[in-house]
Amino acid sequence: MMLMILAYMDLVQLLLGKNFRAGLQVVPVLLLSYLLLGIYYNFSAWYKLADKTLWGAWIAIGGAVITIGGNILLIPKWGVMGSAWAALVCYIFMCVTSYMQGQRHYPIPYKLVPILGWMMGAIVFYLVMEWLRNLMGEHLVLNLLINTILVLMYCFLVFTFEKNMILQLVRKKK
């Protein structure tokens, strides 16, 4: 979803007034941040299952300190982008800390290589979209066509490599 939202930001900006378009620069960083927040929610299951909820509090406090400190340091220099980067660093910290402590206290066999691989793949596809946008210029239809092709390529790769898991999920829903 992150890649699809980023692929069609050109359409979203048409719905916004010109005064609000400058804020769209934070969207890629915040989407990645919120993806990591979702992963953190999954990684945080261990402290509930192991009855070590105090760890959850400490991780959240660490994240709050990083966010507040990052905002104090970065907002004066980078404005709203500073806040977005502070959030990203916060969620990276929370994911890594929760995962590492979880593996120590209540190991859950997450498949980290595919998780990180698909995240990195989405980031690479987004960077290619941005590179091609800069190369082609502001041709809306052409950029949307290229982005659509890249999104379909990414979806094809996900389906090709994760076909068994996807089919299992579809069968469970029936």
Strand proportion, as a percent range, falls in: under 5%
> How many strand elements?
0
User: What is the number of domains?
Assistant: 2
The residue ranges in which pLDDT falls below 50 over 5 or more consecutive positions are none
Largest sheet: none
Order of SSEs: HHHHHHHH
CA distance, first residue to last residue:
23 Å
Helix content: over 70%
Please tell me about this protein's structure.
- This protein is mainly α and 174 residues long.
- The chain folds into two domains: 26-110; 111-174, no CATH class.
- Helices cover 84% and strands 0% of the residues.
- It is built from eight helices and no strands.
- It has helices at residues 2-7, 9-15, 27-43, 45-49, 53-78, 80-105, 112-136, 140-173.
- Helix 5 (53-78) packs antiparallel against helix 6 (80-105).
- It is flat.
- The two termini are 23 Å apart.
- 17% of the residues are buried.
- The model has no long low-confidence stretch (mean pLDDT 94).
